[in-house]
Write a structure and sequence with these properties.
It is built from 6 helices and 20 strands. The protein is an alpha/beta fold. The structure holds fe (ii) ion (2 copies). One fe (ii) ion binds next to α2.
Amino acid sequence: MIIKTLAENTAVSEAFGSEHGLSLYIETAKHHLLFDMGASALFAENAAKMGVDLSTVDIAVLSHDHYDHGGGLKKFLELNQKAKIHVSAQAFGKRYAKSPDGKYKYIGIDESLLSHDRFVFVSGYMRINEEMELFSGVRPVKFAPSGNKDLFMMRGDSMVPDDFAHEQNLIIREGGKVVLIAGCAHNGIVNIIEHMQTAGYGSPTHVIGGFHLYNRSADRDEDPELVGRIGNRLNETDSQYYTCHCTGIGSYNILKTIMGDRIGYLASGSQILI
Ligand SMILES: [Fe+2]
Ligand SMILES: [Fe+2]
């Protein structure tokens, strides 16, 4: 399969735009899939530059409820007339980030789009087709990203810590490869991999996604000691890793030192073959 990075915090060259967000285009033998749509219409601009025709996408997935993954949703609905967009059953909740000055900033997705008839609401587990599955229900039992503590949701009239029940992960199986794709991995990339295994979905040969080891609202990298423990744990697996976005460059550099060739970085404009 081919994986093209349409939007990410950095770019491979000045020819491509970058933003705090994530969007991946994935082409298998049978399907064209869009995983997240970045923070804006940037994903579509980079797609055109990379020769990706977004009108041919037949499946779309929104990993979770944050604007940096679903901000381009409106643009995608304009450009594509056929793909169902698989969102969590908890999607379109009211999500907030708390700034260091104590103010809450709305970071959810545009609720006015909820009336669209193209959404498929996924609860727990769903087999999308012969190649693709979605799962959620991961709990942040260990190695949980500390940046989560600044992320909140409205429940009724109360602001409460976000429970990240709206986060779902994608598995793509093709030609003996088992590719696990996460958006921000708010529940912790180690927990997501272990949940996949204990739920009986198998072990990934490849893992792709942001690992949320950078706290954007506080502009601070994750504790290097925790990043080191995560790197050592990932090194115990047989998977190849590609990360980006909310992993943060500082945390990525620590993982790279520990994991070497077992981890790579996906910037806007990059393309990998799996
Ligand atoms: Fe994110
Ligand atoms: Fe997020």
